[in-house]
Amino acid sequence: MLKKIVYGSILRVQGLKAGIKSLMLIVLFIFIHGCGYQLVGEKGIYGGEIKSVYVPVFKNMTYEPHASVYLTDAFTRQLMATGIFAVNKNNSDTYIEGVLKNIRIVPNALDKNGIVIEKSVLVGVEISLFKKDGNLLKKWSFSDNQTYRVDDLGAEDYNKKEALSMVSDRIARRFCASIMTEY
Questions:
Q1: Any idea what DSSP says for residue 55?
Q2: Which of 99, 106, 133, 166 sits at a 20 to 30 Å CA gap from 147?
Q3: Where are the beta strands (DSSP E) in 31-183?
Q4: Same domain for 169 and 89?
């Protein structure tokens, strides 16, 4: 008699567990399909309308030579890394126009004798995304800064180039993040 009661209880618990599992699957199915979530079916933004982008060399409106090349390279690398776009392909769907608006280099730290040992480079960039027919889709403005060492005169130029490269990478990452979240 006791065996029948225990065995019957076990069957009811197992049946309850199966019912809970089924209920959880149904709730999960409704949640996934009801919240608007969908898997990405194709590359690009605007529902797959924009799959390729051309990145010409950014315009440099500053007196800092070759600074726009760092930005162009960083944007090209970051856009390729997203895996969403074909970059610099012939007959691209869109193109980016980048303008390096300003670069300011300011002292950041002094040693005990009042000699500058650290500087900060501040970069301002304006990015515009155009369709291939020339219509403006969106315009962004980004700025960032990076500190670098200048106490070793032989390494000051190298450190400044590295700082410009790091700032360029961060700005390009922020642009890619914003373009992926907005579209």
A1: -
A2: 99
A3: 52-54, 59-60, 86-87, 94-110, 116-131, 136-149
A4: yes
Query: How many domains does the chain divide into?
Result: 2
Q: Indicate the DSSP class of residue 56.
A: P
Q: Is residue 47 part of a domain?
A: no
Written as six digits, the tokens of 56 are 């010409």
Residue 125 β-bridge partners: 100, 142
Query: CA-CA distance, 115 to 152, in Å (whole number)?
Result: 12
pLDDT in tens, 56-102: 999 999 999 889 999 999 999 998 888 888 888 778 888 999 999 99
Residue holding tokens 């969908």? 38
Q: Are 85 and 27 within one domain? A: no
Are residues 142 and 127 in contact, defined by beta-carbon separation less than 8 angstroms?
yes
Predicted structure pTM score: 0.73
Residue 14: domain span: 1-38
Check whether residue 98 and residue 121 sit in a common domain.
yes
